[in-house]
Amino acid sequence: MADYKPGDVPLVETDERKLFCKFHYKGVLILLIPLVFAGLLAGQPVLVFRFIYLTICLYLFYILNLMARGAVAFIYITFIPIAGIASSGPVSLAYYPDLLFLVYGTIMMGAVMDSSRLSEYLGFSIISIVGGSYIKLQFVLAFVVFIISFLVDPTVGAAFGMKLAQAVVNEYDAANIIRKDSEEERYEVGAVPYPTRPAIGIYLTCCYISSLAGSVSPFVNPNGIITEYNIKIQHIILIMVMPCILGICIVILWLQAMFMGRFGGRVRRDTAELAVNLPGFQEAAANRRNALGPWNAYAIIVLILILILFVLLHTRKPQLYIAWENIGNGLELGPAVPAVCIGVIFFAIPANYLFCRYYVCREPEKPGTTPSLLNWKALNNNIPWADIFMLGAAISCVFCAEQSNFYGKVADAMTGHERLDVVQFLCGAGMGTLFSALSPSTALAKIALPVLNMAGFSFALPFTTALHNEVLLPISSPANMIVAGWGNIRPFQFLIAGIIPSFLIMLLTAASTMICYDMVVPKP
Questions:
Q1: pTM for the model
Q2: Which of 165, 195, 259, 343 counts the highest number of beta carbons within 10 A?
């Protein structure tokens, strides 16, 4: 397909008026949505309703894919200062917190896994276990991602699992077991193809399991931040263990039903037609693995550095023993520090032929200078810039809500006198789920939770536990964003995949929180 150039018409011209909606509905909605919700601007308090109005417009533009995601992301930075909510400087800084640099470091890890072919080596190891069954692949990925997310970090766990998933799916596609790319027409000329439903189901397993694993982990955020607000880590784990276990079962079954044809449907029929290619797949995969050759020095070094990254992140600030972050002058060292540090090392070694020759104890196959483990072109090809900008907007949403006093008004409305108010409890669970869908829970725990704690435990406790329900949108967590960017999964597909699991996990979390309420809340 020819690349789109300025001045070209990306859509076929037509005089048939009945095709108006097909070609022009997005332009109509871009004008209609701000007009429909304009009445909110008359609400009191003014700044709160201005924030709500801008937020509704931004997220509807994003979910309905009415504009390019990278452009939608800058609505806050443009209109929040105009609305008088916050100055442009603080809003700009809110787009780039340390959480975003953790994403950059994680993407560096994923990019170097591809450039060193480590993902292919590990992918063939997984194929030797699961064969040609993408249902078994889902379970193996869920196990790998859960362990890494629980011990290290959900963002890193999802990215590592996603690279393994892509490597295996590429082999399945080459063997014609499943199709990786759909035939759906792309919105932009020359854009990356959209994935098929089985591929989406496999990819979403990585980010959904990572969020659920983080909910019961004493080693990762937001649990580490939540413990700063009068809640012990053992209480968080006690509350979340049942929703985590049942949530994993719900997510796996739901993804199998909706995307992987487990219980019949069109996907099951399509994959059944391709099942004739399964008998010779293991032998073909073994031949491709042999053609790949033995592990090269690049893949070994990258694997060692990734394991070092895992250790650094695991020991950074656990709740169970003394962390290396606490050693020194007491300055906070977020997870972005080791992630970016290892990313810089990826660029630094090997530097040249002589250095490479001596540290791997053998001469390279081709004499001369060698590239570093990671180069900028490979990294740039792996960075989903539009999705990163949207994640920055989602983090800025939390900051702008605090600046408009939105959280303060919610806390005032939910302040009660009873020790356990059921209405406030349900409102806390619902709002926690909604807010965690719109923004990453780490940002919410840092900015929103201190304000909402003033409402009392009847609201704050279910709100806190519901922050782990990050499955509705790509911007609900950095893990979701990375998977969506690398897999080219659109927001509405996240909604389809996450709406039922999110609702059920919310109910499970609320029920578990209510059961443990008397054990967690300190006696007056």
A1: 0.88
A2: 165
Comparing CA positions, the residue from 371, 324, 381 lying closest to residue 348 is 371
Task: For 195-253, give the DSSP string.
Answer: BPHHHHHHHHHHHHHHHHHHTT-SSSTTHHHHTTTT--HHHHHHHHHHHHHHHHHHHHH
Distance CA 254, CA 242 (A): 18
Asked if residue 356 has pLDDT above 60, the reply is no
Residue 140's pLDDT band (boundaries 50, 70, 90)? very high
Annotate 246-262 with DSSP letters as a single string.
HHHHHHHHHHHHHHS-T
CA dist., res. 413 & res. 381, Å (int):
47
Contact 92, 407 (CB under 8 A): no
Backbone region of residue 334 per phi and psi (left: phi > 0; alpha: psi in -120 to 50; beta: other values): beta
- Supply 22's token pair: 């097909």
Give the alpha-carbon dihedral of 254, 164, 291, 369, to 10 degrees.
160
DSSP secondary structure letter of residue 522: P
In the 8-state DSSP scheme, what is residue 194?
A: P
d(CA 77, CA 400): 10
Q: How confident is the model at residue 390 (pLDDT cuts 50, 70, 90)?
A: very high
Section 478-497 average pLDDT: 90
DSSP H or E segment with residue 173: helix 154-174
Confidence of residue 176 (pLDDT cuts 50, 70, 90): confident
First and final C-alpha spacing in the chain: 69
482 Cβ contact partners less than 8 Å away, ≥ 6 residues apart: 103, 106, 107, 110, 155, 158, 159, 162, 207, 384, 387
Interatomic CA distance for residues 486 and 116, integer angstroms: 18
Q: Is 26 exposed, middle or buried (0-12, 13-18, 19+ CB in 10 A)?
A: middle
Residue 328 confidence class, pLDDT cut points 50, 70, 90:
low
217 by Cβ neighbours in 10 Å (0-12 / 13-18 / 19+) ranks as buried
Instruction: List the structure tokens of 105.
Output: 């470091």
Six token digits for residue 407: 């959280």
Joined tokens for residue 193: 């193809």
Looking at residue 132, the DSSP 8-state letter turns out to be T
